[in-house]
Amino acid sequence: MRDTGDELREHEVRTALLGLLAEVGTVTATEAAARLGHSSGLCSFHLRQLARHGHIEEAPHHGGRARPWRLRRHHPDAGAPTEEQFGDLARGLEDESWQRWLAQRDQAPAEWRRDEAFSAIAYLTPEEMNRVADTVRRALAPYQAREQRPLARPDGARPVALITRLFPLLSQPDSGADGGDTPRTGT
């Protein structure tokens, strides 16, 4: 059985690589290592794994040893655009991490066995929804540098998944079509 710490690190590295590719377009293992603070060998391994699973592909390059990678390009008739597929992949990784947490939280140190999962429904306009998202991003901003700067992390700090999804709830077919009705929830 694999050490859950190894799985968590693999997930973190791959998620960071996908995020970096979404941000900069193309990256080599050496460039990713410099940006993410990992070894180029580790980044190279995970870039190849992401390619093996169809998430990224080699970008065109002009000879040399440099091997740039990019998010996988899809034919226009193949469905959703790359950005949407990246979002689907990120949500899948988030869901996988959540399920792993639920299955293994009893193995965590006692002070880490509690989570802060919550959900809420609020009636918002599109502009208000954007403001809520911006507020959450600003609240998290002071902690994000710690990913790249390990010395900035306080003693006892561990990676914590911070996931926020804001989306409009769609009305059920038998409720009104204006979206203003109270959404139905399943039990």
From TrEMBL:
InterPro entries xrefs: WH-like_DNA-bd_sf, WH_DNA-bd_sf
Top-rank taxon: Bacteria
Name of the protein in its database record: ArsR family transcriptional regulator
Organism: Streptomyces durmitorensis
Source species taxonomy: Bacteria, Bacillati, Actinomycetota, Actinomycetes, Kitasatosporales
